[in-house]
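Technical appendix A lists one of the benchmark inputs used to test multi-chain prediction within the project. The record comprises two sequence entries:
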Amino acid sequence: MIGQNLLIMLVALPFLAAGAASILPGNARNAEAWISGLTMLAMIGLLLALYPQVQDGHRVISRIGWVDRLGLGLSFRIDGFAWLFMMLVTGIGFLIVLYARYYMSPDDPASRFYACLLAFAGAMSGVLLSGNIIMLVVFWELTSLTSFLLIGYWYHRADARDGARMALVVTGGGGICLLLGMILLGQIVGSYNLDTVLRSGAMIRSHGLYPAVLGLFLMGALTKSAQFPFHFWLPNAMAAPTPVSGYLHSATMVKAGVFLLLRFEPALGGTDAWFTIVAGLGIITMVLGAVAALFQHDLKGLLAYSTISHLGLITALAGIGSPLAIVAAVFHIVNHAVFKASLFMTAGIIDHETGSRDMRKLSGLFRYMPVTGTLAILGSAAMAGLPLLNGFLSKELFFEVAHAPGNGSRLDAALPWLATLGGAFSIAYSLRFVLKVFFGPEPKGLPKTPHEPPTMMRMPVAVLVGICVVVGIIPAAALGEWLRTAAIAIIGPELPYYSLKIWHGITPALNMTLIALALGTALYLLNRSRIDFGPEGPPLMRRLSGQRVFDWIMANVALRAPRAALRLLTAPGLQMQLRVMVLLTIAAVWASLSRLEWNITFPRMELQESVFVLLWIVGAVCAIGAAWQANYHRFAALILMGGAGLITCATFVWLSAPDLAVTQLLVEIVTTVLLLLGLRWMPKRDPNIPRDVSFRARFRRRSDLVIALACGTGATLIALAVMLTPPGSSVGDWFLRHSYSEGGGTNVVNVILVDFRAFDTFGEVTVLAIVGLTVFALLRRFRPSPESAEKPAPQRGENPSTLYNYLYVPSIIMQWLFAPIIALSAYLFFRGHDLPGGGFAAGVTLAIGLLLQYLATDVRWIEARLTVLPVRWMAVGLAVASATGAGAWIVGYPFLSQHYRYLDIPVIGQVPASTAMLFDFGVYALVVGSVVLMLIAIAHQSLRLGTRKREAADTEELDKLEEETVPETATATTETARTEPQGGTA
Amino acid sequence: MELILALAIGVMVGSGVWLILRPRTFQVIIGLCLLAYGVNMFIFSMGRLYVGAAPIMPRGGFVDPTAYADPLPQALVLTAIVISFATTALFLVVMIAARGATGTDHVDGKERDQ
């Protein structure tokens, strides 16, 4: 049980630390480094504690159930292989954190760097420890995302953005393939459990879908490991800060691909297709990467291609798939991670202390940095695979495996030759790195004078090189045990014979090494001047670049094709789009209506219904009038629309819906005022826009009329058909019966809103809050058009005293109304549960009360006396509503379960006291806040106008204006006020 | 009664649809409001029409559901009224902002080429 908990802590820890790191201030780089470093150390501690439980093929599995019926849950497992990998991730992670502390400039935002790095480490742990293959893909994609953020860390640089985008597209695209592959795999096996899948190798390989699974799976693994032909993203990702490159391209990101290959080798491997594709691409990548690395001038570019080459080597081993090959692959994963991390850090140190990474400029640095130079030489020797260093041992194993007879195909026969060739080139580029950078003449034209880095910055390199040497000299004692544990986890307890020794006698592998050594040295030394100062990139491959293909694909798939599709598929302009939408709706309704039963028997008309008829004659005239006048007579249309709204409201009263009537009436008022405020900013009629007299325009209007008539008729017919059908039983009946007994209120509509269906209301008020904030945000930067800046026509040419007394009596009345409206609002609120009213209506009422004050005086006057903080109202409302909902959890009920009782209060008598009322209060506060926020945001626009006007006016007019401003501010309506508010916008 | 309300719904929907197909933003906003009235009454009418039977319950005792108007469509419409108010406000602001930014009140942000 302890093991399980440790395992979960292992995955959770980096994410928690990432969260903590992200909230620290951006410049707290020491604190960030401490958090990150301690996290890595804690993870190493957890791993060491787990080690006894993963030895000898054992594993620890822990599951956190979620939806057990669907088999959904978090399941993690750790075995020897994952354990060894985790040691690399955390150990090198720790050294990288230490190194980054000195590498990163104080100007770089530290919190983003360390938070992303930790999140990446967490995602990587997730990939390594997932016990479910879908979850594995989720973490896999998470590594792509976090590495995107890390590679694009210096996002002000174009190459960083491009490199990050390319890495994301390539590895993320591979991730999607991997997901499809995993789903197919799960379907074949019948389980998404990793252990089950790994045990079902025979079933998978004989299945008809095996080629598809293999293809999709390899797309995922090979893109991540930057294998040919997807290798091009990796050199571009070198735009990342060097610690990131060192981490991503030594121990983690790219190794995830080979991890996956090795992990699934028992399930998917062992076939000819596997061997041909994986080993073939691997060995090609190894050779091409090594060749390309030799011709790079950028230090990190050389290391990038070298990484590609070494990953090719590991991939080739995974492709060969014999037990010895697997052991060699695991061994080389460790070795490569160690020496490559040290070399990346060295490259970073050189860059940091000389200001350049260009090998054409660097030379003779050994004199300036002897310690770093020695470490770099040892690291490069390990990279080249020279004896007494760790790289030598795993490379020997690789040569041995490559030389061993396999399935007898041509590829198998070519393997030793290609391996030797790749080995030769890797010796050549390592030699170039050492000779060019550290020896030779004095460097010229460097931005800085080279010197040794701080000791602590060099420390991680020293540690890693130390490991290279120790493993290289006493391999069995240093790493034998862990390697055995890891290998058993993949290939089972029957390990092949291998011995970790430096001297095996004269073997074919040793001969291959000697040939490679001679060839590589000759290759470089004979062509030295051509390579050192020649053009970048290997001779034959310069023109064939994967990056160009990628750019071409991106330009076509992501830009041209969507644009063409947009041109083909969309209608021009909003009108046409809406027309299409309306027509489609008509068609859909028509299609479903033809199956309706039409049993219409008209009931007889009662006498009092004639009033209803009259009512709706007015309503119809209003609606049609509004439609008729909306273009040229906006104000008239607005009033007519209000009329239609009032008739609707009367209809609700007539038809037993008092709550709706109240709400409709209040909303009607607010909407009308809002639109009135908005009218101010609409343009005047432009005589240059011709009336639609052309045939096309007329045709369009006619056809729109037909569409509108069709919609109207259709709506009438459907409504009539439904209304004349006798009602069946409705859920409404249940609400009616249980409203009082279970909800404690007699107003069923309100009880439904705040109790039975409170979650809907919760969502609805949240929407209202979002709209309020959006309105506020949209209007914050708004600048009105200049023609709206003039004074409204009625106010022009009037003398100031007329303006002073403008709407004098109404404004006094409106001010007096404030208190009664607040009382009305409270009344509506408290009666809501039992009688028509409720939080929403009460909130709108209070908002109207505040609004009247704004209209009665002006913004400055009112805000000097009354500070409304709408955003706080909203926050309080949302908090109260959520807290009431969450309160139900405390007593073990679902979210938003309400409790009620009646309290006896002396004098007043029985009052309902229900948690629903608290919830309703939340609704109330939120409605007040967002409605006021919207109204204020729109009303404040005219203040902007004032500033603009003042800017435009010349000095003389300015003085005049300011004299006027003093008496005028007290009189002008909202529309003409011109000072910046104090409250309101919070 | 039913016929009148159905016709009323039809008139509202028809006027609303006509307006949302027009080229000026203000027309569209008025159209949306009218359409909202129509749709709200349509949803409301799905509970059938009752006169003098508001869903206010007695305190305790037997409740005969057929004697009251259906509360569910009413609750739904109440929500719908709020949401249509919110969309109207949002659209109004977009309208104002678009007018400021583009200098025209055409729905596409530019006058149609005639």
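Residues 158-189 of chain A form the longest helix (32 residues). Chain A touches chain B through 113 residues (CB under 8 Å). Comparable benchmark entries are summarised in Table A2.
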